[in-house]
Design brief:
It is a single chain. It contains three helices and eight strands. The mean pLDDT is about 95. Strand 2 and strand 3 form a beta hairpin. The strands form two sheets. A five-stranded antiparallel sheet has the order 1-2-3-6-7. The chain is globular. The chain starts with about 25 loop residues before the first helix and ends with a strand. The chain has helices at about 30-45, 45-55, 150-165, and strands at about 60, 70-80, 85-100, 105-110, 130, 130-140, 145-150, 185-189.
Length: about 190
C-alpha cells in the first residue's frame, strides 16, 4: 500500500525528469503499481482511511511522484449532486496516455491547483485547455480508451500528464499576476 512517505516532493530533482513510455504488453509489476496508485487515490478520498493512514486527499497521481519514471498515472474523480451524494465516478489507471486533441478555449480552477508533490500552498491560476481528448491503455478495464474530458476531469488529466515532462502546475502560473483572471477562460469551481 502506498503512503505519503512514498511520494517525492518538488525539492527532489527526480520530479523534473522526463518519464519514459511503458512497453506493452504491460508487465505484472507495472500493472500492480498502477493498481496501487489508484488504491492510494481511493483511500485518500475516504475520510476514515485518509485519517487512519495520514493521506492527503488527491484526485490524481503520476508515476514520477513515487519515483518511477514511467508514463503512468491514476485518476479518481468523484462528482457529487446537490445532496452531496456521488453521482459520477471517473476512474482510470492509464498507461502511456497522451493528449491527441484539445480546444483552444482555456479553463482554470477558481481556487488554483494543488499537488501531492508540492507541500507549500501556491497561489495562482493555472491556464488549461477547456476540453481534451486523451488516448491510452486503462488497466482498470484492460483496454485502450479514448477519454473526452471537460471541466475538472480535463484539468486533472492535463496536470498528471504534465508530470511526464517534468512540469509542475505552478510552472504555468503568471509570475507577474498570479491571481489575475484568465481572459475568455471557463472558470471551474
Amino acid at each position: 500500500m502506498l503512503l505519503m512517505k512514498d511520494i517525492i516532493d518538488d525539492k527532489n530533482p527526480l520530479i523534473r525528469e522526463i518519464s519514459q513510455p511503458v512497453e506493452m504488453p504491460l508487465s505484472k509489476e507495472d500493472e500492480q503499481l498502477l493498481l496501487d496508485m489508484h488504491e492510494f487515490l481511493v483511500h485518500s478520498q475516504d475520510e476514515e482511511l485518509s485519517k487512519k493512514y495520514d493521506l492527503r486527499p488527491a484526485v490524481g497521481i503520476a508515476g514520477v511522484q513515487i519515483g518511477v519514471l514511467k508514463r503512468i498515472c491514476a485518476i479518481h474523480v468523484l462528482t457529487y449532486n446537490e445532496d452531496g451524494d456521488v453521482k459520477k465516478v471517473d476512474d482510470y489507471a492509464l498507461v502511456n496516455p497522451k493528449i491527441i486533441s484539445h480546444t483552444e478555449k482555456k479553463s482554470y480552477l477558481k481556487d488554483g491547483e494543488g499537488c501531492l508533490s508540492v507541500n507549500d500552498e501556491v497561489q495562482g491560476l493555472v491556464p488549461r485547455y477547456a476540453k481534451v481528448t486523451v488516448k491510452g491503455y486503462d488497466v482498470l478495464t484492460h483496454q485502450d480508451v479514448t477519454i473526452v474530458a471537460r471541466g475538472f476531469l480535463a484539468i486533472c488529466l492535463q496536470h498528471e500528464l504534465d508530470h511526464f515532462d517534468g512540469k509542475l502546475f505552478y510552472d504555468h502560473i503568471d509570475k507577474n499576476n498570479p491571481t489575475m483572471p484568465i481572459r475568455n477562460a471557463i472558470i471551474v469551481e
